[in-house]
Design brief:
- By secondary structure, this protein is mainly alpha-helical.
- It has one domain.
- It is built from five helices and two strands, in the order ααββααα.
- Helix 4 packs across helix 5.
- It is globular, with a radius of gyration of 14 Å.
């Protein structure tokens, strides 16, 4: 779990250096999602870590809504959404989906309500 957290958090940490409050909330949100088993990771033989969301704990719609709101709340001013999606596609198992389709899905979910267990981080 520690490796999973470090890999995910460190990937995005540099985009939060100018705002310690956002950095702390993102760190807590990331830790919470990993500790609760919402996000999991596997390490492949080549050393690559690939993340996936736990479909038993969160629906695809809720996960996309959460990702879109994470982008808006934490990275909207420091990172283009296309770049955020590109980084996400490298980190997460996207099941062969194209970046453009994930980008459009996130845009659709951007204004939806955040799943209740995560509202305290926003």
């Amino acid at each position: 779990m520690e490796t999973c957290f470090k890999h995910l958090y460190i990937t995005f940490k540099s985009y939060l250096v100018t705002d310690p409050e956002k950095d702390e909330k993102f760190r807590l949100l990331t830790g919470n999602m990993i500790n609760q088993g919402v996000i999991r990771a596997v390490r492949h033989d080549q050393g690559k870590i690939e993340f996936f969301y736990n479909k038993n704990l969160i629906t695809k719609s809720e996960f996309l809504c959460l990702l879109a709101n994470v982008y808006v709340r934490f990275f909207g001013t420091s990172l283009a959404m296309k770049t955020y999606v590109s980084i996400g596609c490298v980190l997460f198992d996207c099941s062969g989906k194209k970046k453009d389709s994930i980008y459009m899905a996130m845009k659709r979910h951007k204004n939806n309500e955040i799943p209740v267990p995560y509202t305290k981080f926003f």
